[in-house]
Every structure is written in structure tokens, then in C-alpha cells.
Amino acid sequence: MSKEMKVPTVGESITEVTVGQWFKKDGDQVQLDEILCELESDKATFEFPSEAAGILRIKAQEGDTVEIGGLICVIEDSEGAEKSAPAETSPAKETPAEAPAKKASGTGEIKEMIVPTVGESITEVTLANWIKKDGDFVTLDEIIAEVDSDKATFELPAEATGILRHVAKEGDVLEIGGMICKIEVTDAAPAKESAPAASSSTSEKTAAMNENYATGHASPAASKILAEKGIAPAAVSGSGKDGRITKEDAMSAQKPAAKPEVQAPKPVESAPAAPIVPGARNSRREKMSSLRKTVSRRLVAVKNETAMLTTFNEVNMKPIMDLRSKFKDQFKEKHGVGLGFMSFFTKAVCVALKEWPAVNAQIDGTEMVFNDFCDISIAVSAPKGLVVPVIRNAESMSFDQIEKEILRLAGKARDNKLSIEEMTGGTFTITNGGVFGSMMSTPIINAPQSAILGMHNIVERPIAENGQVVIRPMMYLALSYDHRIIDGRESVSFLVRVKQLLEDPTRLLFGV
Q1: What pLDDT does 429 receive?
Q2: What is the pLDDT of residues 80-124, one digit of tens each?
Q3: What are the phi and psi torsion angles at 465 (to 5°)?
Q4: Residue 312: phi, psi to the nearest 5?
Q5: Would strands 143-148 and 162-166 be described as parallel, antiparallel, or unpaired?
Q6: Catalytic: 487?
Q7: Nearest in space to 354 (alpha carbons), one of 335, 332, 376, 371
Q8: Exposure winner among 14, 193, 305, 456, fewest CB in 10 A?
Q9: Which residues are CB-neighbours of 2 under 8 A, at least 6 positions away?
Q10: How confident is the model at residue 314 (pLDDT cuts 50, 70, 90)?
């Protein structure tokens, strides 16, 4: 017996959908409620789950447009052939209770998974977290673990379908090419053993025949109404086809009366935790992460291998703050992103780097490499440590493009999703310690770059202006640079030019 799967009703005004992507291939074994493909309408994308378990036969290909109610695929009963075989081949018919659970057919192949190459300069990784347990059934490309390098965190997908066998443990340091796990390749997931009582098998079969995937599921319009009423779909009986909950069912549904609270039995009190004694001298040890060890090693190397020097200046932030206050609402309405300080600093730095190219250069052995582009690294504090994603060709970007790129990179940094390419190749770095309240600091150069600009907290201070003492929002700027390639005249002139552009931001618009 086969199950024909058709396009469900996904909205009152939607008459057709497009098959976006098939997650399963023709002939694959699929399980009940397993996602088969994506359907795209003119309003949204929907997942299309299997309404039965069996063999998938695809009828509509990717890109095909199918009307509501049109046939998409057929699920063939994988046990149908066995049930229809002649009785002579099976002398004794087994009852459900006696029939052993079917196991997945193994191919005998063992897939050994090794640590892949994740970057040219990365030689080892740390196994951070197993997402799948030892002995779990995994499918091809399913994420099974996370590994940490000294630059980022990577997801490790399964390279075959089968039973996972751990080789490495969480916290183990593995070299590139080292074995991390094995997969015992199988054709399908092993069936769970179940022996239902003979007395209830008839009623369960009857219920299964009367229910399918639509039973108890609400249409999009009904789901919205039920959500507004705070009613769970399980509490509503559907009157639509195959028991689907319609819009009318949702409108007439009433929130069930609250059940009287039943006082739960008091749990057995466990022994109270030892109280913290004032003056106690407790301590604990934590293993350094790969990222933290690499950051430590590189910072010490920079201090030892560069002639690092820092020069300071201060900036009156009132012109920028006034400009932001005047245009921030219109800017966000037009571009969909807020207008921050970082775009002003990035634009000012790019102009100054063009005028003082040594600040945008780096030393490579006995040569100096000068760049005619500005790849600006932005230091971001991520959950696992400091990361420095790069804004490519910032000199050619507008204010809104810079703000959007900063927002994108910062979001990926917080989620530990930055790639190696997004964190390498910068020519100059900006770091903002002011967000944490820092008033002044000497930032360390981000090697192999030759300079880094440090922003700090904005504080209202009295200053002399046109012979008068006035209160202005002031910020200290710090430029740390490698004196081997950048002379004092260039570093000071660069910082003065940045100060000039920030205190008169209209210069950024005209390039003067």
C-alpha cells in the first residue's frame, strides 16, 4: 500500500507552490514526520514532512510549480512486498508480539573521520563538544561535534550515514589529519524494539487508519488565531479534511478552564550545600582554550619582536554627536541600521591611511609591504575570547555599508560562526575599550599589522575653546605603532589627521 502526498493548504490566498529543495533522494527510506523537502510560496517557505514511513518516490522535481492538492511524491510501504508474499513461503505466521524488531542493514563499511584542514596556519584543534553520543544513529552531513582552533569554532558534519563511534574525547587536542571518530555505515536507522499487547493491536491499527499527519494540525490562519487566544492546537478538535483544524474551528475555540492546582508532594530534602565561609581561600583551575593560548603567545611575541610605541591625542566628539542626533532616525529608516561612532572612525582612518601609507604597511622579512587598499580589522569581544573580523575594502564603502558589515560580523562573532577568511588579512585595526569604560590604554599591535587605533570612553571635560572654558564630550585616542616601519612624524601626523576629520565630519563627505 502506498501513500500519495499532495500539496497541503498553506494559506487562504495561496494557490500554488514551488518545490525548492529535496532533502531526500528518490528511493530513500524515510520515517514518519521526517522533513522531505521545502515548498516555496509567494509569501514564505514551508517544510514538507513525510506522512508515512517507507520508500520515497519523487513525482515533482526541484523548481516545479505544483498547485494546492497536486501530487508531490509517493511513499511506498516498505513492508508491503513482504506482506503480499505467498503463504507457502512462511509456514508459521508470527504475531506482532513474537516478531523481532527489524534492524538496519549494515554494509560492513567503517568510515573513519579525521580532522579536516581548517586553515593554512592551523596545525591542531581541540574537540570542544560532542553533539551526538557514542552509539547514536547519524545521517550524512548531520552535525556531530564542534572543534575549536586557535581562531574560531567549527562544526563537524558526519561523512556517512550509520552508527557513530567516538574515538576522541571532549577536550582532546588533535592534529590535523588525526582520527576523531568512526561511523559504522548502514542503509537506514535501526528500528526500535516494540511488542504491543495483542489485545490493543486492533484498536491501534484502527486509530492509525483514521488519523494521518493532518489530524490535529492547524492551518496557518488557524494557528495565528489560536496563538492570539493562547490556546494549544492539541486542545481543539479539527473539523476539516483528515481532522485538520480550520479557521472556523479556531474562531469558535474557547480557552479551557484552569484546572485546580494539585499540590505536588514535597521532594526529599537533599543535604544542603556547604555554606561559603567568609574569608575562605578557595581556588580553582581551568584549562586554557586553544584560542586563549594562541592569543597569549601572539601578544607576547608582538611585545618582544616589535619596537612598539604609543602616541595619544584627544577628540571633541560634539560635532559627531550632533550629526548623529540630527540624522540617526532618518538614517535608520532609510538603511535599516543604526548610525554608530564606528563608521565615522572607519571612514576617518581610511582617509588618513591613504595620506600616510606607512601606517597601512607591514614588514615581511627584509621587505616592507605597502597596501593601496584598507582592510580594517575591528576587535570584538566574543564569548570564547577576543576576535578581530575584517571589513574588506572599507575605503570604498559608504557609512551604511560599514554599519551593516560591522553588525553582520559582530553577530557572527557572538555566535562563534566567524570563518578563517573573515578574520585574516587586515591591514589596520580599530579597538574600542570605551564600551567597557576605559578612559585611556595602550593597545597592542595586531601582528603582522604595524598599527592599531584605540578608542576610549567619552567624558565631558572643561576645555579652552576660542579663549573660553566650555564643557565638551571628549575622547582620548591612542595609536600604537611599530617604530621599525612608522616614524614619529608619520604616526603623529596620522593621528592628528584622524582628529581633524572627526572634529569636522563634513570633511569626510567632501574628501578634504
Answers
A1: 95
A2: 534 444 444 444 444 444 444 444 456 678 888 998 877 655 777
A3: -140, 115
A4: -120, 155
A5: unpaired
A6: yes
A7: 371
A8: 193
A9: 54, 57, 74, 75, 76, 77, 80
A10: very high
CATH class, range 307-510: alpha beta
For residue 438, the one-letter residue type is S
Count of residues in the chain = 512
The whole-angstrom separation of Cα 43 and Cα 166 is: 43
- Reported as half-sphere exposure (CB side, CA atoms, 13 A), residue 491 has a value of 22
- CATH code for 1-83? 2.40.50.100
214 φ/ψ angles, rounded to the nearest 5 degrees: -70, -25
Report how far residue 3's alpha carbon sits from residue 83's, in angstroms, rounded to the nearest whole number.
Answer: 16
pLDDT in tens, 340-352: 899 999 999 999 9
Catalytic-labelled residue, pool 26, 172, 483, 504: 483
- Equal fold, 106-186 vs 307-510: no
Residue among 26, 322, 415, 487 flagged as catalytic: 487
Query: What's 299's DSSP letter?
Result: H
pLDDT confidence bin for 394, thresholds 50/70/90: very high
d(CA 415, CA 422): 14
* Residue 219's pLDDT band (cuts 50, 70, 90): low
Identify the pLDDT of residue 477.
Answer: 96
The CATH number given to 106-186 is 2.40.50.100
The whole-angstrom distance between residue 97's C-alpha and the CA centroid of its chain comes to: 46
Taking the CB of residue 130, how many other CB atoms lie within 10 A of it? 19
Which pTM was predicted?
0.53
| Residue spans per domain, the chain | 1-83, 106-186, 220-251, 307-510
Rounded to a whole number, what is the distance in angstroms from the first to the last CA of the chain? 78
For 499, the enclosing helix (H) or strand (E) is helix 488-503
Output the pLDDT for position 100.
40
Could you tell me where the beta strands, DSSP code E, fall in 261-365?
308-316, 362-364
Rounded distance between C-alpha atoms, residue 60 and residue 71, angstroms: 7
Report strand pairing: 376-378 vs 428-432. Answer: parallel
Nearest-angstrom CA–CA distance, 381 and 431:
10
What DSSP state is assigned to residue 18? E
The helix (H) or strand (E) run that includes residue 66 is strand 65-67
